[in-house]
């Protein structure tokens, strides 16, 4: 479903990803690990169509998203991809419920969106916090809101950049369990960047990045 061929990405003189080729099947789970600065977030941003590669090709469902016009790409990203950012990027002035609804405002009118947001928030265990603001939540709770927001448009691809990075062990286990449970029920392609090798071993596929070059382990 996602096919990456000979992908390279640099920022001026900083060469970040070097000639990477990878493919991910629908509905599987993938962990990406590697040292800080090895290009994990950059790779996730390219897969999420937020950053354009300098060379090489990305195909999602047999289409190169980077051939789309900006508005088409925005619409495509909004419907196909859910993104949980390294730093959750919640809007501080809005409530939990409103934050989860943000991706539904972009394009079509969705009369049942509020109901769906409430249902997703129930599934991530936050029904009792829907009118709170992000600043009134714990780190683990904020991460759950970010996950709920990423899932509101039922994306077939869920990308998470260190979703358990700033959490204590018990809370990160709970968030990881939640991601796997949602992955089972939603049957999405789940790609997670993590520093936690024990967590990485729970994924079907494990990509290790070193200086922008990758190697692959199949855990299963
Ligand atoms: N917008 C940018 N402009 C210039 N350089 C960048 C930009 N974004 C990332 N880089 C550089 O690219 C390299 C890879 O960054 P990236 O964020 O992908 O690493 P990472 O593996 O996610 O690291 P971490 O584990 O610390 O999050 C770093 O050297 C970084 O400084
Ligand atoms: Mg990163």
Write the layout of secondary structure elements.
Layout lengths: L1 E10 L2 E11 L4 E5 L6 H8 L7 E6 L9 H11 E4 L11 H10 L7 H11 L15 H13 L5 E5 L7 H18 L2 E5 L3 H4 L4 E6 L2 E6 L2
Parallel strand pairs: 3-7, 3-8, 5-6, 6-7
Antiparallel strand pairs: 1-2, 1-4, 8-9
Bound molecules: adenosine-5'-triphosphate and magnesium ion (MG).
User: What portion of residues is helical?
Assistant: 25-40%
Which regions have little confidence, pLDDT < 50, spanning 5+ residues?
none
Share of β-strand residues: 25-35%
Please count the helical segments.
Answer: 7
* Biggest sheet details: 6 strands, mixed
CATH topology: Rossmann fold
Radius of gyration: 17 Å
Structural class: alpha/beta
According to CATH, the homologous superfamily is P-loop containing nucleotide triphosphate hydrolases
- The total number of structural domains is 1
The CATH class assignment is Alpha Beta
What is shown here, in short?
This protein is of the alpha/beta class and about 220 residues long. About 35% of the residues lie in helices and about 25% in strands. The strands form two sheets. A six-stranded mixed beta sheet has the order 5-6-7-3-8-9, with helices on both faces. Strands 2-1-4 form a three-stranded antiparallel beta sheet, with helices on one face.
Description of the molecule:
With 220 residues, the chain is an alpha/beta fold. It has a single domain, classed as Rossmann fold, CATH 3.40.50.300. The protein contains seven helices and nine strands. The strands form two sheets. It has a six-stranded mixed sheet with strand order 5-6-7-3-8-9, sandwiched between helices. A three-stranded antiparallel sheet has the order 2-1-4, covered by helices on one side. It starts with a strand and ends with a strand. The model has no long low-confidence stretch (mean pLDDT 92). Magnesium ion (MG) is lined by residues 40-41, 86, 161. Adenosine-5'-triphosphate binds next to strand 2 and helix 1.
